[in-house]
Amino acid sequence: MNNQRPVQSKAKNLKKTKPKAKTDSRRAFTPRTRNSRDSNLKKLQQKILKKKPTIKEIVREPTSGGIVFRLTKDKKDIEVLLIQDSKNRWTIPKGHIEPGETAKQTAIREIGEEAGLNHIQVLSWLGKIHFKYRRIDKLVLMTTQIYLVRSLDTTERPTKEKWMNGIKWFSFQDAINVIEYEDIEKLMLIAKKRIRQGEY
Fold this sequence. Notes:
Layout: H1 4-51, E1 57-71, E2 78-84, E3 90-91, E4 94-96, H2 103-115, E5 120-135, E6 138-151, E7 166-171, H3 172-178, H4 182-196
Parallel strand pairs: 1-6
Antiparallel strand pairs: 1-2, 1-4, 2-3, 2-7, 5-6
């Protein structure tokens, strides 16, 4: 009888210590993992912030383009040509003004290059819009001159360049709805008003 008691007591002690040891192990391990993860995340964020270069130069880029429209065959409706860039944004044909070019000449050239339209007429200047974006350590300030341009050949089909995702004639209202840039949208409304007034 006396010999059995120590054995039972030993077994109880073992049962009590096993779960306790497991629980203590989990509690000790979890906080270390979280702290380590948070520390690594902070280090990564600091590295990213350090890698972002400061702006060292401001660059001005003059560009030009056109809101191109045509009358439908029955001459009752107006359609506007838009291009879809590589980021799926609908916009107007436009590009950089080359040395020796006027803004008007650039608009004609860019419409020919980006849309494949050669039978066009520049009717009037609508206004200018401003963009700014960052290019590594440079801040680029872009000013775009916008012209109202009429397509004279209603049968001429537009052709897109390789970098574009699409090119399409829209009704004026649909063009206003899908255009990505608010400043261009405002100029489109001015263009629509001029066309409706019978100026062109």
